[in-house]
Amino acid sequence: MRHVAAVIAFACNPMIGCTSVDAVTRKVSTRASFDLACPSEQVRVVRLDDDLWGSGAYGATGCGKRISYNVACAAIGATCQIAAQAASDAVVREQGKP
Prior knowledge:
This protein is α+β, with helices and mostly antiparallel strands and 98 residues long.
């Protein structure tokens, strides 16, 4: 049992590049700042579901706009693919507007 715990601890050691939810949130925030044309300190990111390794859906708001992202991360390593999700015909939609 001790060996299994040691293997799991080593496999998810941040020193070898495992992705954390905090790291993914920072990456999404940086991407949203660009997509929303909004300073990063005004962007708020929320995790919309609870997938493994930081993968899943994220939402970002800032400067009166909002956007959602689908994130796919590798189990081992720091690679994540971040794709903006279109809402109707536009990727970025003004809050409170149809």
